[in-house]
Structure formats: C-alpha cells, structure tokens
Amino acid sequence: MLSKEENELITCTNRGTPMGSAMRRYWVPACLSREIGEPDSAPVRVKLMGEELVAFRDTEGRIGLVEEYCPHRRVSLFFGRNEECGLRCVYHGWKFDVTGACVDQLNEPEELQFKHKVRLTAYPTCELGGIVWAYLGPADKMPPLPKFAWTQVPEARRHVTKVIEECNYLQALEGGIDTSHAPILHRLLTDNSTRGGLKPSSPFVRGKAPTLRVDITDYGYLYAGVRPLGENDIHVRTYHFIMPFHQIRPSRSGSGLPTDAGHIWVPIDDHSCMVYNWIYSTGDAPLTGEDRLERGLGNGPLHVDQKTFRSLQNRSNNYGLDREVQRTESYSGIDGINQQDRALQESMGWVVDRSREHLGPADKAIIQARKLLREAVKAVEAGQQPAGTGTSYYAIKAGDEVFARDADWHRALAPDITRDKILQTV
User: Fold this and answer.
1) I need a labelling partner for 110 at 20 to 30 A (CA). Which of 56, 164, 198, 280 fits?
2) Which fold has domain 27-141?
3) Spatial separation of the C-alpha atoms in residues 225 and 213, rounded to whole Å
C-alpha cells in the first residue's frame, strides 16, 4: 500500500511535479508516424503529461512538436495551415517553423513585424519504429535515442498501434507487469474457443500460481513467473520492465509467428494515458495482415476507432461484457485480452487509492516498479540521471518455455542479463 502522498508522488506527471520532472528525462512516444505521414499533411493534437501540443511534418520532412496555442491570441494551431516549411495560424497568419521560431506575421506590415521576438515552446523529436518520440527535458540531460530491438527491424516485421485508456498511467502499467492475473482474467474455458485468450491446455493455465523472481538492473528489471507443472517440470515466462513505462513480453502472433511484444503507457494527463502496443517477428518472417488486426488482443481497427484512438467497447457499454460468454467460453466475458485489461484497470477509477490495497508475494513486480519510480524522482532531484536512460535495454528479449525443475532457465531465457548486470534479486 502507499500513502496518499506517496501515491501522488508517482502518479502526478504534469510539468513541475517531481514525477513529471523525472519522466521528462526520457524519450516519450508523442504520436504514430503515420498520423503525420506526408510532408505538409495536416497537424495532429498531442497531449503529453498535461502539455497540449501539436505535431506536424514540414515540407522538408522535418517533424515539429510545438505548444498548441498561438502566442498572438492563443487560438489552437491544430487549425493551422502546414505549408512551406512552417505551420501558419489561420486567424492572423503568424507562422512557426519546427524549432518554434516565428518566421512570418501576415497581419503586420513588414517593417513593423516583431517575429524575431516571438517563439513557441518546441521539443526535439526522433522517429523510430513507426513512432515519433519527443524529449521534453533539459537539453543537457538528453539520453541516447530509444533504440529498442523492435524499433530496429524492417517495417514488414513490426507493427504498432495505440489506444486511449481512461485512467492514470500507473494502474495501467501495473496491470501490464502483473503476471499472476494473466491465466485468470485471460483464461478461456474451452480449448476450441476462437476468442482471444489462454486455452486451458496451455502451460500458462495448467501451471500453479507462480513464484516471482525480480532481477533489478540499470534499466529497470527482468522478472519471471515460475509455475510448477506436475512433479518434474516448470513453466517460466520472463518479462522486462524498462523505466519509466515500458514492458517487453514473449508472445506468438495471430498467425503463429514467434514474436516479442509489449506496451508503452504514456501519460496524457493524470486521468488518462495513451497505450502504445507493439509486436515484432523475432525471426525473418514478416507479420501477416491477420497479425496486424490484433483480433485477439482488442487493440486494432476491429476494436479501436483509428481516428480518435478510443476503444469501441468502453465504460458506456460495459466493454461488451456478455454474461453468456462469461458462463460458457471465457473467464471475463469480454473480447480481447488487452480490452479485458482496460476494463478492469479503468474500473479502479481515474487514480486508484493505493492506501486501501492489500498486496502479497504475487505483487512483487508491482512493488519494485513503484520503488524504482520513487528512486527516479530522488535521482533527478539530486541532479543525477534516473535508471533506464542508458543503452543496456537495446537488445533484451523475453522468453516463455517449459523446463525441467532443475534446469538453469535464467541462462536459457535471459543470457544477456548476466550476474554482473543484476543489481539486486528480490
């Protein structure tokens, strides 16, 4: 459990808050590359940690991420014209380039223009893995680019989507790093069900409740759920938590390809977050059209409005809960694994009251994530870089296998996380 003050410390991310200052030391997903696909295409609204911004791609292909409101009369630049290497306000014609500099003032005589005195707040960006990333922190503290393994493969082998979740980023994140709920909430009741979920015959479901191992590293941690399978075997599933809001997990695509997948829970404000969902083929085979539908997950075009990025099943319709399906086919009665997650995480309220929790050994990964977030705040307040701003996470992968009880699963599934890279095991 956390006190009210501790809870606020790690859930409030607006500029000027301790957690907001810490999160601004990382590269943060701002939008999908395809949202601002072509040069001079329409700008899009972006809200990050309470800051209202506009993203656009200029005539030369450069990306601008600037504050939304024109400094002249404070109208939204979302309505602006993206033209000739700048975004022009349609109210009085003030124009801004990707650096935020004002380069023209149509409503002022040329000899009276004071454009050199005016500029918008603008943030550095980079483009990796189909995402536009932004850095909102001090220029001299900018970390290396976020070159996760999935961002480095050809587009044919990767896929990324996003969806708005109507709750604070932390309870969404904590759902993602909670392995003990997966074979319960996401369980199917029959092996012949065609719905997304975990079949009764899978080792994930057949195994008993897991024992958790968490290896703290300089990027966050590796954690594993170790489930007994009968007398001789264990099922081990490893994940990674990369500070401050990334998860990597093992998976198989809808077409059966071996993949790694994960989520990024980016604060929009303190009451909502944008969940980026990514997957990539760990072999040479490309992802299929079926894989890109994310049919069993509930993140793709069948479940999410691709203009607003809001889930079609939501609070207003009880997430499509079907009690007959719940009785006969799936544990939850809700379609889509990640849609099930959103339903339960949103049911906790905008920001869950963690002073009323009763945590146990199965919550070890959640407890450690909260600790790491608090430590990140302390590091930034002390003038240091927080964990996860290096490059050690670039090549890490997750795993999921059945082993003999005495096997060295750690060496098999996490060969890169050697003993010298583990700061602490809990």
Assistant:
1) 56
2) Rieske Iron-sulfur Protein (2.102.10)
3) 7
> Alpha helices, DSSP H only, in 177-261?
182-185, 203-206
The reported pLDDT for the residue numbered 63 is: 98
Per-residue pLDDT averaged across 391-399, rounded? 95
Amino acid identity of residue 93, one-letter, is G
User: Could you count the other beta carbons within 10 Å of the beta carbon of residue 117?
Assistant: 8
Surface-to-core class of residue 114, CB atoms within 10 Å of its CB (0-12 exposed, 13-18 middle, 19+ buried): exposed
Angle between helices 364-381 and 4-11 (to 10 degrees): 70
Is pLDDT above 90 for 252?
no
What type of residue sits at position 384? Q
Q: What CATH number was assigned to the domain covering residues 149-425?
A: 3.90.380.10
Contacts of 19 (CB under 8 A, 6+ apart): 9, 10, 11, 12, 13, 373, 376, 377
pTM metric for this prediction: 0.96
Q: What would the two tokens of residue 316 be?
A: 């207003």
Consecutive H or E run containing 82: strand 81-82
The full set of domain ranges for the chain reads 27-141, 149-425
The answer to whether 387 touches 220, Cβ cutoff 8 Å, is: yes
Q: What is the dihedral of CA 149, 150, 156, 162, to 10 degrees?
A: -170
